[in-house]
């Protein structure tokens, strides 16, 4: 959208004004995420830049909040670093425990959501699927229904069947919330899937299982993996269901951040947030690479 | 698969029937039509079987819980279970005057039983929800009702507390005694049901839900509008730049999209609080006095700013995917036919973006209406939405029935919006990233 040579002064002015507006919106989008990175190295327990930080004095910056992530909750954080210290951190540090819970719950929920979701997407992508729209709307609905409603309902129901305050309960809840993402990404991949490949495989004597594992799965794998990443991030970032369903044993990272923000606000939260920003950068990169690969496989890339 | 391969054969079969009056047969002798039907049915079944595991999982882990919630909104078995005799008497009572001896006898017996089974507290809480200030009346009276050995019960109970002679209390008990009741849904709409079945507005000081529903609606509307305002130019830019630039700039949209909700909310707290970065900048620039810093957070402004930021990618992405399909030659054609820039944009470009505007706006609005985390953390008192009051009733007042009823009303609204989305945009067109 280069500026045409016949543009008048008004058009020229608007052209640049428009770019400035867009620049401001991009600034609005990115600034809050980037600003917490320097703030997390604050030597003082403030949420703002100190004058020392602005003058780039070395002593105004510190890694104390990152250390605090590891030591907060430990029995003896001042012991010399060693085996005992590490064991203490692994079992007692609040954030480390939360991180372990987050990963455990996230991975289990992702496996469940991805397995069931991919299978269902394969069915939904078939033209002969009966009641396709209705079933699809139903399966997508966990993404649409407000989380408070879902979480409250799950609290009532899971309490009645003794699943509240268990890891299994949280995993089931997160899997249900993650499946819509798997369905959306995998069906999107299947739209461009050439069905004659399956027939070619079958006509060459491959049983349906071989056709699926040797032909279908490798081709839709990028979609499946990005669906899985979506499901994982959904679980990894979910806090409402955890608030309602989880006990102290199931505290996840977002749950820990939630109480950190509500109760004792400290820049440790900012340090955790910075680490999470890097997690999302890694995830975004993976998704982007997968998308490109999938486009290349389907030959749709320009 | 089978359908497509056999489709030409069907046409041939019907041709044959028309021509020779005899059905075409498959190799094993069955009429081809029936064989095709069976194959189609089988492949439909096969497709459905692939979906069944997930469908069963979603029904059990999601739909049944939501159904439980809806049921909670109308179900109130506490009083009827623990005060069975009184419930039976109240069912007959017309609610015009304080009932007679039989009702008081039933009440005395029930109070004693409920105290013995330690359920009197639950009963008291239930009636207290209909008529506040009656909680202690029940617990106190139950203790003393044990000493009443024989009638007349009416005089004896009124002797314990003369509130028992109030018509209002009996009416509240009658409402509490319905095990399936509209009371909670009505309360969620700031209404109340009276013993004779009439529906009336709650007194002014107890009306808080309807205004909160309205606030949720207008704030979600405003957030949607702001997202559209900010998202439209960016989506236009991304759709019209050469791919190598737009892919790069897309990261600016996708990174916030992928960043944890709590991280983004935290950074807005760091930015907006009165000792935060933004206020520091304002003070340094002389835009605000150091002792009169702007209150940007823990109020409506905080909720609106943070939620606009969080939901903006949900507006940009659908807008972008629609704008990407609009050929730039249309605008050039309009210009070459003499339209000025504004007219060309308004008459040619804008109408083509309507599907994107609709998809983005509906999505943002649906998500905003049910938002909980961000308003809870940055909304203060005035920035709370309906989800927050649901959570409040779930966690603090423990009035789960009312929480369920409020949730039920919110759910109906969201389902209607979702249905509209399905009709207008189609469920297949939700795109991620």
Summarize the structure.
With 302 residues, chain A is mainly alpha-helical.
Give the DSSP E fraction of chain A (strand runs of 2 or more residues): under 5%
Q: Which structural class best describes the helix and strand composition of chain B?
A: mainly alpha
In terms of quaternary structure, the protein is: heterodimer
The low-confidence parts of chain A are none
CATH architecture heading of the largest domain in chain B: Orthogonal Bundle
Broad CATH class of the domain at 97-265 in chain A: Mainly Alpha
Amino- and carboxy-terminal Cα gap of chain B: 31 Å
Based on CA inertia axes, which overall geometry of chain B fits? flat
What would CATH call the class of the largest domain in chain B?
Mainly Alpha
Structure description:
The complex is a heterodimer of chains A (302) and B (433). Chain A is mostly helical. Chain A has a domain at 97-265: MetI-like fold (Orthogonal Bundle), CATH 1.10.3720. Chain A has 13 helices and no strands. Chain A has helices at 9-39, 51-54, 64-71, 83-92, 94-124, 132-144, 147-160, 167-191, 196-203, 208-236, 240-245, 253-262, 268-298. With 433 residues, chain B is an all-alpha fold. Chain B has three domains: 1-10 and 38-67, no CATH class; 80-177, no CATH class; 209-429, MetI-like fold, CATH 1.10.3720.10. Helices cover 71% and strands 1% of the residues of chain B. Chain B has helices spanning 2-20, 32-72, 78-82, 84-92, 101-116, 120-130, 135-145, 153-160, 167-177, 183-188, 209-240, 243-258, 261-272, 277-285, 300-323, 328-336, 341-369, 373-378, 386-395, 400-424; strands at residues 191-193, 199-201. The longest helix of chain B has 41 residues, at 32-72. Chain B is flat and about 100 Å long. The two termini of chain B are 31 Å apart. The model of chain B is unreliable at 1-17 (pLDDT under 50). Chains A and B meet through helix 1, helix 5, helix 6, helix 7 and helix 8 of A and helix 2, helix 11, helix 12, helix 13 and helix 15 of B.
């Amino acid at each position: 959208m280069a500026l045409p040579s016949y543009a008048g002064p008004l058009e020229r002015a608007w052209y640049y004004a428009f770019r400035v507006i867009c620049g401001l919106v991009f600034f609005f989008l990115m600034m809050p995420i980037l600003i917490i990175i320097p703030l997390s190295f604050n030597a003082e327990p403030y949420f703002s830049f100190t004058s020392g930080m602005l003058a780039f004095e070395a002593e105004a910056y510190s890694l104390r909040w990152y250390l605090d992530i590891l030591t907060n909750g430990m029995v003896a954080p001042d012991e010399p670093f060693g085996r005992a210290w590490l064991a203490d951190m692994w079992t007692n540090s609040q954030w480390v425990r939360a991180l372990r819970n987050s990963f455990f719950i996230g991975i289990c929920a992702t496996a469940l959501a991805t397995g069931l979701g991919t299978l269902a997407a394969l069915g939904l992508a078939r033209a002969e699927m009966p009641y396709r729209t209705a079933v699809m709307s139903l399966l997508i609905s966990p993404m649409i229904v407000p989380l408070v409603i879902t979480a409250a309902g799950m609290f009532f129901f899971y309490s009645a069947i003794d699943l509240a305050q268990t890891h299994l309960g949280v995993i089931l809840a997160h899997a249900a919330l993650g499946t819509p993402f798997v369905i959306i990404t995998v069906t999107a991949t299947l739209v461009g899937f050439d069905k004659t490949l399956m027939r070619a495989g079958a006509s060459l004597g491959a049983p349906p299982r071989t056709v699926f594992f040797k032909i279908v799965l490798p081709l839709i794998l990028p979609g499946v993996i990005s669906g899985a990443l979506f499901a994982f991030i959904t679980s990894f970032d979910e806090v409402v269901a955890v608030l309602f369903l989880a006990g102290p044993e199931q505290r996840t990272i977002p749950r820990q951040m939630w109480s950190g923000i509500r109760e004792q606000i400290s820049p440790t939260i900012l340090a955790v947030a910075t680490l999470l920003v890097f997690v999302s950068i890694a995830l975004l990169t993976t998704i982007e690479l997968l998308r490109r690969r999938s486009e290349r496989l389907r030959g749709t890339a320009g | 698969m089978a359908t497509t391969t056999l489709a030409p054969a069907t046409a041939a079969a019907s041709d044959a029937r028309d021509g020779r009056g005899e059905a075409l047969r498959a190799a094993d002798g069955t009429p081809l039509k029936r064989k095709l039907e069976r194959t189609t049915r089988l492949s439909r079944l096969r497709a459905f079987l692939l979906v069944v595991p997930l469908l069963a999982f979603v029904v059990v882990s999601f739909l049944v819980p939501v159904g439980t919630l809806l049921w909670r909104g109308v179900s109130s078995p506490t009083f009827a279970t623990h005060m069975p005799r009184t419930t039976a008497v109240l069912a007959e009572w017309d609610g015009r005057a304080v009932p007679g001896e039989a009702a008081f006898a039933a009440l005395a017996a029930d109070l004693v039983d409920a105290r013995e089974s330690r359920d009197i507290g639950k009963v008291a809480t239930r009636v207290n929800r209909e008529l506040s200030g009656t909680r202690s009346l029940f617990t106190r009276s139950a203790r003393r009702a044990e000493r009443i050995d024989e009638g007349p019960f009416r005089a004896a109970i009124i002797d314990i507390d003369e509130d028992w002679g109030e018509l209002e209390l009996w009416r509240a008990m009658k409402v509490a005694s319905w095990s399936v009741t509209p009371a909670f849904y009505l309360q969620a709409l700031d209404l109340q049901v009276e013993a004779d079945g009439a529906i009336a507005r709650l007194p002014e000081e107890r009306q808080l839900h309807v205004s909160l529903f309205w606030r949720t609606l207008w704030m979600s509307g405003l957030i949607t509008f702001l997202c559209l305002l900010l998202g439209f130019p960016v989506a236009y830019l991304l759709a019209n730049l050469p791919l190598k630039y737009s892919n790069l700039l897309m990261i600016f949209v996708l990174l916030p999209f992928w960043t944890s909700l709590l991280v983004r909310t935290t950074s807005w707290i760091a930015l907006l609080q009165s000792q935060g970065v933004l206020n520091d900048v304002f003070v340094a620039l002389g835009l605000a006095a150091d002792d009169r810093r702007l209150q940007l957070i823990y109020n409506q402004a905080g909720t609106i700013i943070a939620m606009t930021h969080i939901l903006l990618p949900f507006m940009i992405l659908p807008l972008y995917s629609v704008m990407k399909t609009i050929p730039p030659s249309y605008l050039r054609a309009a210009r070459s036919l003499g339209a000025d820039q504004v007219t060309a944009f308004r008459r040619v470009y804008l109408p083509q973006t309507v599907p994107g505007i609709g998809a983005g706006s509906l999505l943002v609005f649906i998500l905003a209406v049910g938002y909980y985390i961000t308003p809870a953390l940055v909304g203060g008192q005035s920035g709370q939405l309906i989800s927050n009051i649901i959570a409040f009733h779930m966690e603090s007042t423990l009035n789960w029935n009312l929480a369920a009823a409020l949730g039920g009303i919110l759910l109906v609204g969201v389902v209607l919006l979702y249905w509209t989305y399905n009709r207008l945009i189609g469920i297949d067109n939700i795109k991620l990233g």
